Amino acid sequence: MSVTAASVPALRRGIRRRFDETRAAHVLLGPERVIVLDEIAVAIAALVDAKASVGEISQALAQQFEADYAMVEADVIAFVQDLVDKGLVAA
């Protein structure tokens, strides 16, 4: 499945976003997998709520970071697509 601005991403069942004290980093936890998130990934993942579309997430982040919407949208689509490909997110 290809992620677009209209896609509405949601963490799949069993996937959790949390701060890992051992790694001192934000992570996505799933069965037998841990994905360490960088600062940008944390900002995107925090808005993945099964309600907001990729376009809405991109708009919120573009405003928050005073960045170009098109650049933010491209980054959000790439990140969400990667998580979809890894089976962590449904979109």
Characterise the protein shown here.
- This protein has 91 residues and is α+β, with helices and mostly antiparallel strands.
- It has one domain: Coenzyme PQQ synthesis protein D (PqqD) (Arc Repressor Mutant, subunit A, Orthogonal Bundle).
- 41% of the residues lie in helices and 21% in strands.
- It has 3 helices and 5 strands.
- It has helices spanning 39-47, 54-64, 69-85; strands spanning 10-11, 16-20, 25-30, 33-36, 89-90.
- The strands form 2 sheets. Strands 2-3-4 form a 3-stranded antiparallel β-sheet, covered by helices on one side. Strands 1-5 form a two-stranded antiparallel ribbon.
- A hairpin with a 2-residue loop joins β3 and β4.
- α2 crosses α3.
- It starts with 9 loop residues before the first strand and ends with a strand.
